[in-house]
Write a structure and sequence with these properties.
The protein is of the alpha+beta class. The chain has three domains: 51-220, Immunoglobulin-like (Sandwich), CATH 2.60.40; 221-319, Orthogonal Bundle (Neutral Protease, domain 2); 323-545, Neutral Protease, domain 2 (Orthogonal Bundle), CATH 1.10.390. Helix content is 36%, strand content 21%. It has helices spanning 3-42, 208-212, 246-264, 302-317, 344-361, 367-382, 392-397, 399-402, 418-436, 443-458, 464-475, 480-487, 494-498, 531-541, and strands at 51-57, 65-73, 79-83, 101-108, 113-114, 116-120, 123-127, 134-141, 151-152, 156-159, 176-181, 188-191, 194-195, 202-205, 216-219, 222-223, 227-229, 232-238, 271-276, 283-285, 289-292, 503-509, 519-525. It has an eight-stranded mixed β-sheet with strand order 5-4-8-2-1-11-14-13. Strands 16, 17, 18, 19, 20 and 21 form a six-stranded mixed β-sheet that branches. Strand 6 and strand 7 form a beta hairpin. The longest helix is centred in the first third of the chain and has 40 residues, at 3-42. 38% of the residues are buried. Residues 1-45 have low confidence and may be disordered.
Amino acid sequence: MKKSSISQITNQVELQQNQSTLLFKGFKLILILIITTLPVIYSPAQVIKPLFFYTLSIPNPTTHIYHIELHTSGWSKDTVQFKMPRWMPGYYQIMDYSNDVNNIFAKNDQGRDIPLKRINKNTWEITGIKSKSFDLVYDIKTSRQFVANSYIDSNHAYLIPANTFLYVDGFLDTPVSVKIINNPSWNKIATGLEMVKGKTNEFTASDFDILYDCPILIGNLEELSSFKVNGIEHRFIGYNIGTFDRTNFINKLKLIVKSAVDIIGDIPYNQYTFIAIGPGRGGIEHLNNTTISFDGSQLNSEEEMNKMMNFLAHEYFHHFNVKRIRPFEVGPFDYDKGSKTNLLWVSEGLSVYYEYLIVKRAGLINNRIFFEDFERNINTVENNPGRLYQSLTQASYNTWKDGPFGKQGEERGKSISYYEKGPIIGLLLDFAIRNATQNEKTLDNVMQYLYWEYYKKKQRGFTDAEFQQTCEIIAGVSLTSLFEYVYTAKEIDYNTYLNFGGLKLDLKLNDTDSAKQKKKYTLNRISNPNSLQLTILNSWLGEQY
């Protein structure tokens, strides 16, 4: 055989071998893809999520009752337990919302009743529903006007989702749809829920946490002019908001939002709504909205306007501090037992500290009013014997039984409020960080780190130890001595820390009767501050040095 022929055959063999190898590799790759894909497609661990479609109606508002129908289907098991939350995030008290449920029953698509068994106070069990659709129907009776309770009267409806919609353990991550059949005499619905395109009364939530985070206000509502901060729209809408200078109010509110946003340097929502629910019922924070008690007719003095701006700054800043910058235990939520944490002094107490800073940085108050904010907290704490009995972490954890402002009645004077001591520790911590870093770093840097590192990057909350560690990373020094005021009932050495910022605490007695002596503290500047003290003070006050 010719050498050229041998070469041709060799080339053909090699070509066939290469083709075979490529075919084998291709087959192998397809086989690998099939093997690795099959568990994803057919994995028994993957559960098809059931459908939750709620219809809410208010047939007769004068009865203070509203009606709920849940249409649900797609259940892969035969027995399901539906639960009503016992509390709502943002208000750390057991509310037992199931007490408001009346006339509950289940029916199939043909309208026939399905047996429904009450397992405990807030749980109902239904059986025989695998691969079937059915409805759960019930009424909610309202009786108390409060920011954490649903309430309906002839003029409006304020609805707490955790007081309204049943959930199923293990399916909190399921999307939810809500349709509201509005009273024909009412003109608007205000909520943080996402509106279905083309519908003004249908809404969706990506999961139950989002659903429970979006209260609903219905009635003849008034909406003020919206404003934008960094291109993001902010709305103010409410019921019975009163008579006041609306333009002046909105201008101040815009300054508040901008001041708060500047602290963190990010806006994590597409739109934000201030929902005013009427006079005197508190306020609760949410991811893209806040519900607030509001009566504009009371804003007829500088003092009242300042109080309102502090209140709005506090509730607004919460969308950062607690909703996103959050303790590890505060999400995912335990809607049955509550989510207890030692860190409400951070979530609430530092939000009080920042409400003062936000209003001051917005240019809405002078230095004297700013100092008086802290004096109120200091005088409340120092005249409360509970400061010797309870630490900040204990006050945080025990709020579920003591209440947010400490024990009352016969036990009064045995506990403290993190709303009062928390902002004091915030002030001292801020000054300690500024002093340790020659005013290069502040408490703002701590909040920024927690937001970007834990909320954005790690997508979780922080522990007690991680919060202190973050403060020490920013300060570059140990802060163990200062954190003793958090973990123990040790008396606070105010002036050691206040002096860092050129301030001091002066004491005088308010009563000449020694048996009734009440301490009165005032915050004042020290004489002859050094260069660093002046730098820290003027930076903190937002003044030029």
